[in-house]
Amino acid sequence: MAFKEEVPPLWVEKYRPKVLDDIVNQKEIIERLKKFVEEKNIPHLLFVGPPGTGKTTAALCLVYELYGDNWRQNVLELNASDERGIQTIRERVKDYARTVALGGVPFKVIILDECDAMTSEAQWSLRRIMEMFWRTTRFILVANYGSRIIEPIQSRCAIFRFSMLSKEDIAGRLKFIAAQERITLTQEGIDAIWYVAGGDMRRAINLLQAAAAYGGPVDDIAVYKVAGKARPTEVHEMLKLALKGDVIAARQRVYDLMINYGLTGSDIIRQVHTEVFRLDIPEPMKMEIEDLVAETDYRLVEGANEDIQITAFLAQLAKLGKKMAG
After folding, report:
1. b/e string for 19-53 if b means 16 or more Cβ within 10 A?
2. pLDDT by residue, tens only, the chain of 326 residues
3. What is the pTM of this model?
4. Are residues 259 and 204 in the same domain?
5. In which region does residue 141 sit, left (phi positive, over 0), alpha (psi from -120 to 50) or beta (all else)?
6. What is d(CA 189, CA 262) in angstroms, rounded to the nearest whole number?
7. Half-sphere exposure (CA, 13 Å, Cβ side) for 90?
């Protein structure tokens, strides 16, 4: 999709917080990091949490406040998912770690983003480097899954666990960006972005940018189109038709969703998984529907015919609806 010239191409970078105080929803973590800045000293750090919660941003804000405008001379930033092997650790990281810092802070910083993607051998090599060069280098490790980091590295780091952002925090940031870019953002649009992105701020901003590229107001229709998801109300209607026994009408609704939103059968089944728990039906029936969802999803992933599986799923829903009515 081609964006209009007046829409910034990289909103996530443009609106990334520059200082720790600008980061939202992580107040306890920010207060602890600010103490490190005041003391001009940090231990090795491990930032753990879901995607889009501010881990990398916090690392960059921390080094910027430590070093000021000269932070790039004292910071090496690597994405460990791209450079995940032992060779990178032995060469680039080790060579940088043994150099002396410039300026008033007596150490350099190496930021390893997505370090949970590093191989086991690379992590064991990194552990040794962290021991050898602790006087001249501090490491900030960023990971989505802390359990994938070997225990010796975890024990050498101060661990900061980032939580999912709240809807109020996401909405506040989106409204700020919309005001700066002079975009009409409706409450329905905010609700739709929250539904799709959850607590992932990065995904929320990208959705806002993509929806704004249409040129009109950013409402729920625009958001669901760019996100490749059906509106929850439409999925509800399809499920209610099937539970009432009208399989033909429900099947037609499925194909309308696939055409209008460009969805696959797997996309619809996975969205049904989310929406089942919002249906006003008895809990035991929700569990039975989830069992059907799991079975249908498995068959689709294994390559079964999409048309047959979707129709069979709707037929099973009709049987459940008849059983509930009886």
Report:
1. ebeebbbbeebbeebbebbeeeebebbbbbbebbb
2. 333 333 344 667 777 777 787 777 788 888 889 898 888 888 999 999 998 888 988 999 999 888 888 888 889 888 766 655 666 677 778 888 888 777 778 899 999 888 888 888 888 888 888 888 888 899 999 999 888 999 999 999 999 999 888 899 899 989 999 999 899 999 999 999 999 998 888 899 999 999 998 888 999 989 998 888 888 889 999 999 999 999 999 999 998 888 888 888 898 999 999 889 888 888 889 999 999 999 999 999 998 999 999 999 999 999 988 887 76
3. 0.78
4. no
5. beta
6. 20
7. 7
Residue 39 covered by a domain: yes
- Same domain, yes or no, for 141 and 191? no
Distance CA 305, CA 293 (A): 15
Q: What is the DSSP letter of 305?
A: -
CATH of the domain at 222: 1.10.8.60
DSSP letter, residue 185 = B
Residue 189 lies in a domain: yes
E strand or H helix at 295: helix 283-301
